[in-house]
Design goal:
heterodimer; A: mainly alpha; B: mainly alpha; binds zinc ion
Chain lengths: 81, 225
């Protein structure tokens, strides 16, 4: 069985489906057998979701419009060049 | 690691093959593009108003101050206007503009005097001599957040914690996990090897997990009360 450290080295590829079948199986086995790594994977996945979600919030960091002065400045900036 | 500067002129439509853009806008049979190429002011204004929110949001995400994001906003549209003849329509205009925005941000970040950044080693997993994971290794930062966390507050904290990561890790995390570029696209944008992208991404996620653990545990604790 893989050690936790070896599993950690494979983890990103394992979660993204980028491993050959045998290594994938070894990782799968490790997660089944190792409570610490199973817990770690669960939290790791949660963090990925939180990261994506953080920039899609109601304020979303995506304003509905751009402040008028910024629009005007961008157009003026172009005219000046 | 020293970054090689990327000139806006390096941004070619061929860079964007395979990048999907979920929120495309209809620019109507290339009419807007023709109009932009003809240099008509009203079309530039239409473009600024249409993709401006996306440009501003992207600039705020990558840069560390609103003032810099505003400057980057202007430089991005200038680069778009100056480069519009080179746009080959292999991607959507929005995707092309987004990539130019990111390149403008990276140019700014590279020009900055590099901040002395803390190591993230203490946020990475710890293993014993037999390679067994040491539970909670490196996770000991006390949370200073005392109130119960609602979702918006949590999002704000996550953004703040991402901002605490050193740029080498933060940029990879933003490009891969937030902007959805593939490993090879991220490697091309940052001009590093794909393996370096993978290593940094894994470390960035792991460090972020450590930074967020006290917050999440507190949140779960509140939820269970
Ligand atoms: Zn393990």
């Amino acid at each position: 069985m893989l050690t936790c450290k070896e599993f950690d080295d494979f983890m990103l590829d394992y979660l993204e489906g980028g491993l050959p079948v045998w290594q994938k199986f070894m990782c799968w086995m490790h997660v089944k057998m190792c409570r610490e790594c199973a817990y770690f994977v669960q939290k790791y996945r949660r963090v990925i979701t939180l990261g994506k979600d953080a920039f899609q919030s109601p304020d979303g960091m995506l304003p509905d419009y751009v402040p008028e002065e910024l629009v005007k400045a961008a157009l003026a900036h172009r005219r000046s060049k | 690691m020293a970054f090689a500067p990327i000139a806006v002129d390096d941004v070619k439509a061929t860079d964007f093959i395979g990048i999907s853009e979920p929120q495309d806008i209809d620019f109507g049979d290339g009419e807007l593009l023709e109009c932009l190429r003809a240099g008509e002011e009203k079309c530039f204004e239409t473009l600024v108003r249409n993709v401006g929110p996306q440009v501003l949001a992207t600039a705020k995400r990558y840069l560390r101050s609103d003032a810099e994001a505003a400057d980057c906003f202007q430089d991005t549209f200038l680069a778009v206007f100056q480069g519009i003849d080179r746009f080959e329509q292999r991607s959507s205009l929005r995707t092309w503009v987004r990539r130019i925005t990111i390149n403008q941000c990276l140019m700014r970040i590279r020009k900055q005097v590099r901040r002395k950044e803390e190591s993230i080693e203490h946020l990475l997993p710890a293993f014993d001599e037999k390679g067994h994971r040491i539970e909670n290794g490196g996770i000991s930062q006390p949370s200073t957040i005392s109130e119960s966390l609602d979702s918006e507050r949590l999002r704000s904290i996550v953004r703040e914690k991402i901002g605490e990561l050193p740029d080498d890790y933060r940029l990879v995390l933003l490009l891969r996990d937030i902007d959805g570029y593939t490993t090879s696209e991220t490697a091309a944008i940052l001009r590093i090897k794909s393996n370096a992208v993978k290593t940094r991404l894994h470390r960035a996620r792991t460090a972020l997990k450590s930074l967020l653990t006290p917050v999440l545990e507190q949140r779960e604790c509140h939820a269970n009360v």
